[in-house]
Amino acid sequence: MSDESAFRDRVEELLAKESLSISAIQRRLEEQGFKEHRLILTGYLRALRDIGILTEVEIPPSKTYSLILKEEKPMIGFYDLMKEGIGELDVADEIKFIVAVLIINTLFHRPCFRTELKQMGIKHFESEYVQKTDGRQYLSSINRDILLIPDYDPAFEYVYDMPVFPVVEMVLKVLSNVLKEVIDVNGLYDKYPQTTLESNL
Question: Cα separation of 32 and 14, whole Å?
Fold first, then answer.
């Protein structure tokens, strides 16, 4: 297949507008200078279906294909993943609050808003190791279409007076579990490490 990138772009452009049968796709492509055997085109369309780029609908005696728009693709949100990871920590609610604040502070280099904490399942909002701060100057950096934060939403920052190692260890645990959810790291680590090795680290 010559110039596969251009070919795929053309296929996606055609199927973003309407659902088409294989015959119709082949005809449209030929009109634009792309000539491929029907069997090759069929295999290519099915491959795009299998990786979630296209959707296939059987309308006897043929099948139609259409592009799956990005907003239609199932996606687990950042805060949902954080909620799950923090929820798995076997610690007091105050510690979960601290961990959530530190994660946002570290990842986004800004205070953590109360709205974000609620999204992460945090219900406890007090700790001597977390201080309130004015977060209004950071609101412009957050896309309101993704997360709507009230103008006077309380914002929090971690205070580095607490013995930091246990908290950082929990932050790393949450983030590593989330990373494994969104990125394929199979083959790079042992899912069931030897306990003797863990105890020596």
Answer: 11
Tell me the whole-structure pTM to 2 decimals: 0.53
**156-171 mean pLDDT:** 74
pLDDT digits (tens, 9 = 90+) for 103-140: 888 888 899 999 999 999 999 899 988 999 999 999 88
C-alpha 64/C-alpha 142 separation (Å) is 39
Q: Output the domain CATH number for residue 36.
A: 1.10.10.10
pLDDT in tens, 19-30: 889 999 999 988
Q: How far apart are CA 151 and CA 134, in angstroms?
A: 10
CA distances from 39 to 169, 173, 182 (A): 53, 48, 34
Q: What share of the chain is helix, strand, coil (3-state, %, to 5)?
A: 50, 10, 35
83 found inside a domain: yes
**d(C-alpha 46, C-alpha 56), whole Å:** 8
Domain contains 201: no
